Amino acid sequence: MKLKNIKVLAVSLVALGAAGALASCGSETGTTIVVWAPTEEQAVIDEVVKEYNKTAEYKINYKFTAVSEADGGTTLGNDPQVKNAPALVAAADDHIFGLAQKKIAQKLPTAWKNFVLESNTEVAIKGASYNGDVYGFPISTDNGYFLYYNKEVIKDEDKGTLEGILAACKAANKKFRMDLANGWYVNSIPQAQGITGTESLSFTADADGIAIYNIGWDTEISAKAFKAVNELINVTYKDTLIMGADDVMTGGFQDESVVAGVSGTWMQPALEKAIGAENLGACKLPTFNVEGTAHQMASFTGTKVYVINKYRPSEEQRMAADLGKLLTSKEAQLVRFRLRNSLPCNKEALLDPAYTENISLGGAALVEQNQFAAVQSQSAEGRYWDVGKAMGQAIYDGKLAEGESAGTVHTVAEWKSFLETQCNSLRKSGK
């Protein structure tokens, strides 16, 4: 692995003219930073830093702590000075809003901001940004989902439509798993092409830093979409769709009770082990039918980012900047692809044969689906998830109000009223 563009980073920071806490950079000898990242990321960091330190004048010294991207962003947001607090933390991009609002994430000065803007895809840049500023170094853009299926049961003529998948499952007495009562998956219905689209959910901060949403999911066509999918899974193919976390899908593939499901690239090894690589298929999400028209299901796409903790001493922030840039370079992203099968977001890495000639089944399906995806960090933050969950639960069981029986068939007007109530809760601060 060659890191020729990164080797002189530490000694060139002064010349870059960066502003703020990262402006000057003397010798960093003796400084050691704490890094929070998922367990799987440690091998990437170890390999990349070891190679860099062979020739670097100023070594990068770090202590690794295994923390998931979800827990890292949440924990830092709750207390940036928590025991063993990191100078650099890996976080999902939907944490950027909160970390920026609380002034915990260090806004990247011009030199580092330009590195991010010049090196990465548009989706990755959006994921690392808030209100025109860049707050993180994009790691990957594989935080999305698509369809996995057992090719022995779900045929090519079935996989393209939700109706076809459910029909094939029912005919074989098998199940289709999609965790609809989850805000991360339910957007696939209202944000579908021809319903409200991927730009129909976004937010801005009010004077108190609370997210206020612009959401268009309570239109007539959206109500019709919710009604159509509810009746499809609750009437026409009742008991064929099941919900649950990824372990439900893995177990179902293992005992052959589940033959199709929605998840992400991280599931491929377990599913291949369950049914054999030769039997596993993957592709974009299917379409679903509303009054005779097929609509392509949407998804969220997300970026993982390395964020600098503004509460750490300036010398730690400088080393964290070194490491954040190093770990998101072209070379490092190719190491991560090799070791973790993470999709690069560095534009040069995406064109490199080491990636293009070895992209996984799931990776190719995610790339196919991402053209129908909403950028998560620009669409949703903490306030959205409970509302999205409520909408998804309503699709799954048909209950729009307390006291109703599951499986109730509602009118379009009733669905519209329900969606208006849910959307209105996001349009105001909720204080």
* General form: globular
Structural class computed from helices and strand pairing: alpha/beta
- Major sheet description: 6 strands, mixed
Number of helices: 20
State the share of residues found in helices, binned by percent.
40-55%
Number of strands: 17
Q: CA-to-CA gap between the ends?
A: 52 Å
**Global mean pLDDT:** 91
Describe this structure in words.
The protein has 431 residues and is an alpha/beta fold. Helices cover 43% and strands 18% of the residues. The chain is built from 20 helices and 17 strands. Strands 1, 2, 3, 6, 16 and 17 form a 6-stranded mixed beta sheet that branches. The chain has a 5-stranded mixed beta sheet with strand order 11-8-12-7-13. It has a two-stranded antiparallel ribbon with strand order 4-5. α10 packs across α19.
